[in-house]
Amino acid sequence: MSEGPDSREAGPDRPIGFFDSGVGGLTVLHECLVSLPAEDYLYVGDSGHFPYGEKSADELLERAQVIAGYLLDQDVKLLVVACNSATSAAGDSVRELGRKAGVPVVTVVGPEAEIAGAITENGRIGVLATPATVSSGAYHRALEEQGRAFTVTEVAAPDLAPIIQGGATFSEEVVETVRGYCRPLKEARIDTLILGCTHYPLIAPLLQRILGRDVRLVTAGHAIAGAIQRRLASEGALRDGDGEGGYGFRVTGEKESFVTLGTRFLQLPLGDRVEHLEI
Amino acid sequence: MSEGPDSREAGPDRPIGFFDSGVGGLTVLHECLVSLPAEDYLYVGDSGHFPYGEKSADELLERAQVIAGYLLDQDVKLLVVACNSATSAAGDSVRELGRKAGVPVVTVVGPEAEIAGAITENGRIGVLATPATVSSGAYHRALEEQGRAFTVTEVAAPDLAPIIQGGATFSEEVVETVRGYCRPLKEARIDTLILGCTHYPLIAPLLQRILGRDVRLVTAGHAIAGAIQRRLASEGALRDGDGEGGYGFRVTGEKESFVTLGTRFLQLPLGDRVEHLEI
Questions:
Q1: Span A35-40, average pLDDT
Q2: Overall fold of domain A110-220
Q3: In terms of CA atoms, which chain B residue is nearest residue A210?
Q4: Could you tell me the pTM of the whole model?
């Protein structure tokens, strides 16, 4: 095993920083650990302030600035905001912090919209997301920026993230709930669905079965891994080699519950890589 | 929801039958439920006689014939042997039973070898499997039958299936174990790995991370879903439509443990679809 992120100095060997309100962003980290295994990663889960969905815009802005500041102090070479709420409330502010520090910032929403716009054939794109994300209009705007007219069907799923976080992912209740959310998407004859919440990859097989295999699913993890790779490659900061980098976690809440809950989301060991962080 | 398999009569509307010694074959069923959602499925788990790895060839042959006979009596339109041990010991016998009944039989090994042979670019193929499967030489022979000379590196993993079945899939112990098995595969510079045991898809992300993303993983589930589709399409027996079919389970062992254990392997609800079967 290589050493942890903290021991790196500069260039390709600096870690990639992630932050999220809790465990959801671990599905994004999962994809990066699998797709870009040579990199080092440092993930901050602001679980002490979860859920972000219930915070005011000012509170979210403050949390995002504190955590982004911490990660920039850790000398990350790229910063990922792996959280829809934080991206909506503080994406521009974090990008500005990154610009000042000379560190690129990648957030959710944009990369998924870019992939969905590139792969749709019939131009009918679905978005499944939390009510807050749908009402923010973020995916709608990001799809409009692709410079092509799409027919976008957005479905707000109030109970899906809590059900998934609660662990009842494979119950008949979930199947019926998901079937209901898929109905308008099927009626709209979408050929591409953006999973607009980092919890949803855990039910990707169920969505694929209900929607049929001709519908392509776009996750933030897949989209962000691609965006990181392009960005680092263009700056000569992608780490070479076929070895594995290290990864570690700092959580503002309780360690044990983050490990227990997070394992389902990361699908890789969290184990003794988690430290409590008071910020 | 459509009705269960038992209510079907003929043609495309008959169910597809599966059998396995326990829960492993559920990773194959998972892929079929996602890739071919319109079909009905009936899965027999011979959990009352698990594990098959410790049975004699005669015992395995007898169990395979009993279960294949049961599924043929249920009027399946295609029969899948989703188990390496049963395929080694009784594949030919089950194929013969199917031939007499006019029902096509798809087993593991062949479809994975076919895909691996088609997608490898450097001709270096790895096989990760149980010691029994490796010593049977089944994958070696199946790759030879592809009519091209491959460099095949087989790694026998005695403890991987039990560790996965035991549930410690995301521990550091598993990571170290898998890293050890991957070492000869990396040294052999394989570009394609056959996951030669139906338990292994549960650690596919870990394998992908350790081997690097340039190595393509071939699972029995993916290969068999493709084989079923081609076979049924050629016979005009593929079910059309974008709806979901039904699926059910018959187990020769205890119901509750099959549901608990099986959920991790199916990644879809088993719930109240499981019945005990005395054969």
A1: 96
A2: Rossmann fold (3.40.50)
A3: B244
A4: 0.91
